Amino acid sequence: MIQETRHSITEILSRQPIFSGLDGSESARLARSTREYRTSKHEVLFQKGSHPASLHLVVAGQVKLFLPSVQGGEKIVRLVNPGEIFGEESVLLDRPYPMTAQAVRDSILLMVPRTALMGVLGDNPGLCFELMNSLAERMHDVIDNMESCTQRSSAQRVAHYLTQLAPSQTDSFEVELNTNKQTIASHLNLAPETFSRVLRRLSQQGYLQINGRFIRVANAEQLRLHAC
After folding, report:
1. Any idea what DSSP says for residue 73?
2. 63 or 131: whose pLDDT is higher?
């Protein structure tokens, strides 16, 4: 992990949705303890069970949170994208991380130490609300993922995943798969070949068009109905 100091951490923090409500003095106070790091693809940021030292914020790149198995496999619980945080539940509770975090690609992260974060939280109800909202969204997403993996067919899981990527209130949209198919398949609890086969089938049925990493959906509502 390589420490970087070329960017203004105060400026980066102020641009992130979760910290946007902090005033100038609070941002500067948090920035003094925060460190920016560049991670390499496949680098492990922390292991399941390790003690939390910092809240992590993705500035660029992508990180996966997963549960490792004794057989050497993994169940991806969440893919964290730019502007999103992770590890907040362990930092707030001061309990070990429940999952392993690994960079999916070369990434830039901000590490906000627990002591500094808790100090600012005590003086800023707005940040408390933002963290509470983040945790509520995470809980909703986990339940949604559990429902998808246990009650939906493979085709419904893929259709549901694609509809989640759609901009709101749109009939058609195009998305770029922002990670490899193996990672997405693991997130959906599917084998990679099953994920590819379902994409081909949905394309043949007219639900979508595939052009490399780009997928175009002509009728978002039709795909949503297919996901039910």
Report:
1. -
2. 63
Helix axes 114-121, 125-151, angle to 10 degrees: 120
Map out the domains of the chain with their CATH numbers: 2-150 (2.60.120.10), 152-227 (1.10.10.10)
Question: What pTM, to 2 d.p., does this model score?
Answer: 0.73
- Is residue 210 a contact partner of residue 203, using CB atoms and an 8 Å limit? yes
The answer to whether 3 touches 35, Cβ cutoff 8 Å, is yes
What is the phi/psi pair of residue 78, to 5°? Answer: -160, 145
Q: What does the block give as tokens for 88?
A: 């907040």
Mean pLDDT of all residues belonging to the chain: 85
**Pairing assessment for the beta strands 35-39 and 54-60 based on DSSP bridges:** unpaired
How do residues 182-203 score in pLDDT, each as one tens digit? 888 888 888 889 989 999 998 8
Residues 6+ away with beta carbon under 8 Å from 98: 48, 89, 90
| Pick from 94, 26, 6: nearest CA to 55 | 94
